[in-house]
Amino acid sequence: MLSARLPGLHLSSKTSRPVTIKQSVVICKASRDVASSNAKHQVMSTSAKLASATCGLALAASLCLPGVSMARPEGVNRPDLLPKEQTPVIDVAGFLTPSEEARIRAEIESLELDTGFKLRVLAQNYPETPGKAIADYWGVGDDTIVFVADPSFGDILNFNVGGLVDLEVPRRFWGALAGKYGNKFYWQEKGENESILNAVSAIDTCLREPQGRFKCTQVQGEFGEKDSKGPISDRIGKLFGN
User: Other C-beta atoms within 10 Å of 83: how many?
Assistant: First the structure.
């Protein structure tokens, strides 16, 4: 069984038989120094069940880098910060424009329709976050990727990956993605919105690639640098003038 922590997100643990427990894996934050030295990104590993009725998802922070020890922030539960209507994108930090949110929603909805995988995006600045309230709101499960964009602790990209997704996508992809678009130097120069947009597009491309040993071995380049293999990306680009 695998469990996860996201910056700001605590997961409660309940053990059960492997066939019934939900699995998740967190790919820890990538730092520029670790990426440049080809150090491996660590993966937290204990048993966990997403969407636990008692705690579910809550906020915490952990850089998960060798030799780094830091305090764990208090958990947050702010359902008042959740949208009234169901949406796969929640931006409580105001990083995205309305058109950017719409583009991401369209890409996520098409990806889910075509592949069955659920990508959910939460943009936040800890402690301003709905925290563990998102577990029930989104119904997080084995087929879900929870992408938390939070620059509060330096790097911005954090991923909680469900068990079925973990079987589909090699773990090194998430570390490479965080290293490319999540490092502090990138988002401070390009903006938080660019980190989020490019990461979503790269995930879309990865999950649409055919099965095989080369699946998700590369992280898609920035918009305009390399077209997404996901057909929705071209349509969305035209729709929003990109």
Answer: 12
